[in-house]
């Protein structure tokens, strides 16, 4: 099964371990090539603002159009990129492309706020603030148009350093969202100390309503209430049915995202999707976009 296992080599590692190491090196080199050759693409998933029914934003989700392996999902290469350091150059590309696309949509009368996922590994490097600044400047995009999606892990590793970076991002005018909240270890004490604008509830929370409806609804209501008390908007991820959408609306959630609303799509498809779904009816400006 190991790649190159048939070749004549000194067995330093067990075959499985060696193949894992080789694969990591291979993916690092390949990823650099992917960035340089334009093999990475962003798909965008609409975010629905529940009080108005407007699509006010999108989340940028990276895919790798691999020359041999086809279209790869983030789970196929992001974890490796996080281990071998490639996630930083990859994210620079994502930030640049997302900012460019968001500015293009805005010029075309579609003012959207775009979420970009940031790995804990990148948050820890200290170059994030500069990378965000560079992307905004190159695209001539206002900082309010970007939201950086961070998981709690980013904060847990080095809370002091994280606080300093949050402060810098706030000064730069870029909003932060806490991603996947409610999965794994969600520290409430940490949450109240993070100056985030949006709390994204992990999709396991809404998925739970299918089997344990009242308990899961209570959990969502509690987190939505907590977000509100902390001055954050709440966003439920993974809304897959009309019933779930109705429920999150009822529970007072501000924003929703999920396959029932729309699947992630290539940038070229978004304008038509918005036109068909009555999104961005509000060419009135950004005030409404940012109102909770
Ligand atoms: P995430 O940031 O939590 O993104 C949401 C994921 O849930 C996306 O998967 C999206 O396609 C999927 N999703 C959305 N709605 C539904 C739904 O209704 N049902 C289900 N089952 N899934 C739904 P995707 O695109 O495969 O991305 C997976 C993860 O990979 C992301 O989770 C994020 O952590 C990471 N990722 C994606 N793009 C990037 C990137 O540019 N940089 C970094 N560092 N990570 C990224
Ligand atoms: Mg995300
Ligand atoms: Mg998420
Ligand atoms: Mg997730």
From TrEMBL:
Domain of life where this protein originates: Bacteria
Annotated ranges, domain EAL: 24-278
Segments traversing the membrane: none
Protein name: GGDEF-domain containing protein
Species whose genome carries this gene: Modestobacter versicolor
